[in-house]
Write a structure and sequence with these properties.
The protein folds into two domains: 45 residues, no CATH class; 124 residues, Nuclear Transport Factor 2, Chain: A (Roll), CATH 3.10.450. 37% of the residues lie in helices and 25% in strands. The chain is built from seven helices and seven strands, in the order E-E-H-H-H-H-H-E-H-E-E-E-E-H. The strands form two sheets. A five-stranded mixed sheet has the order 3-7-6-5-4. The radius of gyration is 29 Å and the shape is elongated.
Length: 222
């Protein structure tokens, strides 16, 4: 049988593709193609439906971090699903570990080769865990809120607010029972699903003022 798509001479010195005959388009295999596409579409739909409505309890009740997230809307479910399909869940786990005072959970999202560019924190996973143990001891009622998270490539950026009472010594400063608010903008590089490198910007002047470790002198005439 000749190739239905073979080149033929058009009679004017050019070559054209031969048009397939009508009978060749009406094979049982071709007639079944629309049905196969339709069935595949519905399989995908059922998979997403089952995830959102049938199997959501799996994420609710087996989360090792004891998440308090609730499926209050389809939009919420889609947002959380998007987080777990990307790396946006990592900053949320960071905040949750601090709120639950479970620094040991850092091993779940901190890469073994963690490179921290904050000069006040010792290097590696051990350094960041030691710092936050000290922080949580100084501010035992710490509440961390993740305000915003942005992902671009292998970078995650998030804004956090930390509120707590200065109850025990911190970095050599004596407690004064002050309400202290720390604000941070953190940028992480993600590798193998974990934080591998870190940069941050903090409102340190305000924090040291709240600790009683710094004062700001007003300009003359003010």
């Amino acid at each position: 049988m000749p190739d239905q798509h073979a080149l033929r001479n058009a009679g004017n010195g050019t070559l054209q593709f031969a048009r397939p005959s009508r009978s060749s388009l009406q094979t049982p295999q071709n007639r079944a193609l629309p049905t196969a596409i339709h069935d595949a579409h519905h399989r995908v739909y059922r998979t997403l439906r089952d995830f959102l409505f049938g199997y959501w309890h799996f994420f609710l009740y087996t989360d090792k971090y004891g998440s308090t997230l609730t499926p209050d809307s389809v939009h919420h479910k889609l947002g959380v699903m998007e987080d777990f399909m990307s790396n946006k869940h990592l900053p949320r786990l960071f905040a949750q570990a601090l709120n639950e005072k479970r620094v040991e959970l850092f091993d779940e999202f901190i890469h073994p080769a963690y490179d921290n560019h904050n000069p006040h924190v010792q290097p590696g996973p051990a350094g960041v865990k030691a710092f936050f143990r000290h922080y949580l001891d100084a501010f035992p009622d710490t509440k961390v809120v993740m305000e915003e998270v942005i992902e671009e490539g292998d970078r995650i950026s998030a804004r956090f607010t930390y509120n707590g009472t200065f109850t025990n010594p911190f970095m050599g400063y004596r407690p004064n029972s002050a309400q202290v608010q720390l604000r941070s903008i953190d940028i992480w590089r993600v590798k193998d699903g974990k934080f591998a490198e870190h940069w941050d910007e903090l409102n340190l002047l305000e924090v040291f003022q709240q600790l009683g470790a710094a004062t700001v002198r007003k300009a003359d005439g003010q």
